[in-house]
Amino acid sequence: MNWFKKMVSVALGVTLIGLTLAGCGSTSDPNSKTDKTVNNSNGTDTSEITLELLYWGDDVQKRLVEETLARYTADTGVKVNAQVLPADGSFDTFIQTRLESKQLPDISYMGEADIQKYNEMGILADISDMLDNGSIPAKLDAITIHSPDNKVIGVGLSNQLELMFYSKSKFDAAGIPYPPSKVEDAWDWATFVKNAQLLTTDTKGNHAGDPAFNADLTENYGVGFTAGREFHHFWAAYANGGGVVSPDGKQFLWDSDKSVQGIQNIADLIQKDKVTSTFSYTWNSGIGSAIDALAGGYAMVISGSWDLANINGNDDIGVGVLPKMEKAVTMNCGAPLVVYNTSKHIEEAKKLYAYLVNPENSLDLLKSGAWLPNQADWYTEPTLIDKWTTELPVSAKETILSYSNTKDAIVQWPAYYVPAYIKMNTKYEQNIDQVLSGKKTAQAMFKETMPSIKQLWESGSVSE
């Protein structure tokens, strides 16, 4: 199951875009029987047009989307048939079946790691024109998805960021200052490890790093990770000055010494520093939400911004920037929306697309923290910032704005733009447990594995 599909289902769900989509800027009665007879640029009566949206979600989310689209129809005259799938990984199989029967939808949600595959199939529309003509205002670079030939093929519905969640009471008890909320103040790696050791204790109260500390009797851990290792492993590679693939897709970085050391630093938190539990998990399993982990045996948890929706006024939880290695950065994700170039009504499909990716139409999700705005000016314009940050913890607001307004502080998840990403990561997943368990160093594992992973990257293809 695609990790982001799972996480957004937990954190209110991707399809909760329907919660407020037409509730802002529209006073139309969705039950109105008044017919809309608006003509498009080709002179077609829009009331005769029906678009299809494919998405994933549960019964509640299905109801919300249907209510939203009813309002959209009332405003525009364009009917929208919304088909929902469960968030269980069946989307890919379903869309393949629809492709074979030549019945693709007009618009759909899509997993981050799937978008290059469908682009390679030649079925995704280029939406660059909407960004060029302003019908879609400038989006954050981090959630703007390009094809290998630099066409824009999708934008993320939300800008999800990896953040540091922490328990204020646990820090207070240990006498340690809270993690900073400004990128320029990020802890260096040595400070982070030292503080994590002070926050890690065994059943006798000994701290990690003390000669008397017994790791087998650990009662409290300094740091934990949720949402699966792929996210924070790649973050570590970039934070240490390496990476997976350069932002322009032209340079393979994963086998660099800096990437190797960044990932070794993560493994060392388990085997050397003794400040976190063994996490040999994948996208499909983990230690739960950051909130659950902080309520249990963890003082800090590195997780996604979607966990902000779970805080619900918990004053004990603060949010800060991630520690830095060579650089202070975070990594983003956010399932994109796409238009299919097979649509018989491409003009209307693009108009609906622009409506769905407008943050003005998802304010409740933004206020909760389950989503973060996908649009650049929502991080710079005071009136727009106030629309979505008033209910967030002050530390969370400061952290998110600091990342979003600091040049190069957000690294785009390579799943967005590397065609061979799925195959590359599958190979990595088959071997990384040897490093996390201490059986091999990252350097040794990379020496054995990276030549074949690099070959996959060099193919420049999803399928080959």
TrEMBL record:
Keywords attached to this entry: Cell membrane, Lipoprotein, Membrane, Palmitate, Signal, Sugar transport, Transport
Top-rank taxon: Bacteria
Pfam families, alphabetized: SBP_bac_8
InterPro entries, sorted: Bact_solute-bd_prot1 (IPR050490), SBP (IPR006059)
Annotated signal peptide: 1-22
SUPFAM superfamilies, per the entry: Periplasmic binding protein-like II
The keyword Cell membrane is assigned to this record: yes
Protein name: Multiple sugar transport system substrate-binding protein
Organism of provenance: Paenibacillus turicensis
